[in-house]
Amino acid sequence: MIAGMASALPALIVNSFLFPLILPSGLSDSTEMALTAAISAPIGEEIFKLLAVCLFLSSIRNPKKGFQVGFTVGLGFALIENLAYILGSAFGGAPSMTLTALMRGIGSIPAHGLWTGISGFGLGYYSKTTDADKRMKWVINRFSIKSVDFAENLGFDIDGDGDYSGFDDFRPTFEEMLAKDDEGSNWKLIDKKTGGEIDAPGVRTRDVGHSLVTSLDAAKLGTDAGFSILPAKNVMGCLSIAIGGHAFWNGTLVSVEKLGDLVGLGWGGVFLLNMAWVSILIIVLLILARGIFRGVRSLPAN
């Protein structure tokens, strides 16, 4: 969540300072805000949130884990963004602040979580098919070793061994660390009724991970629970879905408001039209989120 909060800063810089510089001069403030909401915000925010998810690549082993990390990063982003909107609405008094908090809480929080979860899902597939998580662990390990070497060269005894010779323990290559990780877990015999481990004499154990059900069983459970949706199986496809969903959300909200002004509904009519469309968007979002959650849960844990 902290990474998601931090990703809001570069997104704010792009939306507030960089994107307006590339727009044609002479645009009205309302047009500039509409273009920012429909173009800059979806592209910039989703890219920076995905970069925040990449910080945890070393712990993302599969699409399910990627979705979980992405969803949490999205929640952190939404927390900061909503705080800014709510504080801004305080100038309109208690009713405005309450309504903003309610609508942002119901719509923005699950939306940001879902969009970034989808991006993380694609990153999880990338990690699973390329050993990217293990490579990131190796990079972090190498960086730690080099940091100890650098500090001890400056005269600091970081490892407490009484000398300044640098990192003295084993320095694994990527292949050695990969082989070590592959030795990590064991086969387990699981009672299908109780879910408990079975100690069977004479049965040898081998590596399978920690899932209590097979991928086939998990897929069947997901199907039986109702309709399910799985995003694309690559990073760019998932990022495109996230940007597209975000752009549709923001773009249609801006368009509905402009439509109300064009037909002369007045402030009250525009407000009611806006609330009606927001309600439709939230309902559709929750239906999609329900299907995606089912699809993600149907995947094996490893």
Give an overview of the whole structure.
This protein has 302 residues and is mostly helical. The chain is 70% helix and 0% strand. It is built from 9 helices and no strands. Helix 2 (29-54) crosses helix 4 (94-130). The longest helix is centred in the middle third of the chain and has 37 residues, at 94-130. Residues 204-212 have low confidence and may be disordered.
Structural class comes to mainly alpha
Largest sheet: none
Please state the overall shape, judged from the principal axes of the Cα atoms.
globular
Distance linking N and C termini: 24 Å
Rounded average pLDDT: 81
In short:
This protein is mainly α and 302 residues long.
Write the layout of secondary structure elements.
Elements: H1 2-22, H2 29-54, H3 63-89, H4 94-130, H5 132-153, H6 174-181, H7 215-224, H8 235-262, H9 266-297
Helix pairs in contact: 1-2, 1-3, 2-3, 2-4, 2-8, 3-4, 4-8, 4-9, 8-9
Features:
single chain; mainly alpha; 0% strand; 302 residues
